[in-house]
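Q: Structure tokens for this one, please.
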Amino acid sequence: MDGRYVVGVDGSLPSRAAVRWAANRALSDGRVIALVHVGEPDGGMMGGEYAQSEARAGAHLLSETAAAIQTGDAGVIVTESLVDGPVAWALADFVTAHDILVAGTHKTGFLHGRVLGSRSVQIAAAVPCTVAIIPDLDLRFRRGVVAGVDRVATAHSIVRVAAGEAEVRGEELLLVQADVPVDAARDELAMNAALAAVQSDFPHLVVRSKISARPAAEALLDAARGKALLVLGPGSDEPTRSLIGSVIHDVLLNVNAPVVIARPAEDRQLVGPVSDDAEAS
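A: Here is the predicted structure, written as tokens:
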């Protein structure tokens, strides 16, 4: 399969959760796992000895993480890279458009929080590929996939990723379109395009749909509670606007399930058969 799972590694619990999430998928879908540790951008200003010490510590962390993956999942190909710079921009320079960038995050649990420096938001905004943001949660007993649908232009690419995940899991897919005025013309909603795409490409998949007048982030987070995955599209497909809109911003700051932000070009299945209860680190 084209592209890699590029995983940011820093030794934290969310980072370990991200490694597990990627490792569970790499064995079945054939992607390489590229482990990346980003060094402090100002490390050199602390002196050469400090910079060398930091590099050695980063290399040791990468080596330990790679060994844990390969011990648990023999056959997974793992590469290790040390890079420097601000984390989001260093990762953006490292990935390609065909990669899936996997990053861990601490969940906040406070809706409408405005932590403008949130690293998960920075990463999702900076990188040019599909992004998976993984909270440090027990995913072993979670079932079902949720897809957030907001406009016709991205409906097909979003549901392709979400339906592919649901199908290989043997679980249901829930399509959610929120922030819909109560007097909206239902036959003109993006939900119709999403349902048509699923029925065409995944005719045997169990699919439910929900249209809500609630604010989108609230409705999506509520639907994702207890689910294995939430799939969203970019906030905007206009080249002059940020890919991360207010909905994705709020979801990432209050994440309660793994979130995949699927770029429109990623019109393909995301994963192979997986189990979220394996330990990789």
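A few notes: The first strand starts at residue 4 and ends at 8. The chain is about 35% helix and 20% strand.
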